[in-house]
Amino acid sequence: MKHRKEPPGDKNIIGTRIVALRKAKRMKQKEFLARLQTFGLDISPTSLSRLEGQYRLVQDYEVVAIAKALDVSVGELLGEI
């Protein structure tokens, strides 16, 4: 697994949460991409990597699909308690 050499970007607030939740569920990016497809979100591995690194904006419909794929609420994904 390659580690990021650059600090996180500032394009979204959920990138680091996605990584943490995905890793807590022991899910690799490839598996996560497959789960996203089952919820109607087809994004490339590069796009997911940029999203997780906070270098890409996230659309509202993507937030919903990501939350479903991670089996969490949208509020939890956004950092609400």
From TrEMBL:
SUPFAM superfamilies in the cross-refs: lambda repressor-like DNA-binding domains
The record's InterPro entries line, in alphabetical order, gives: Cro/C1-type_HTH, Lambda_DNA-bd_dom_sf
Domain HTH cro/C1-type intervals: 18-77
The domain of life for this entry's organism is: Bacteria
Q: What protein name does the entry list?
A: Helix-turn-helix domain-containing protein
Origin species, per record, is: Cohnella soli
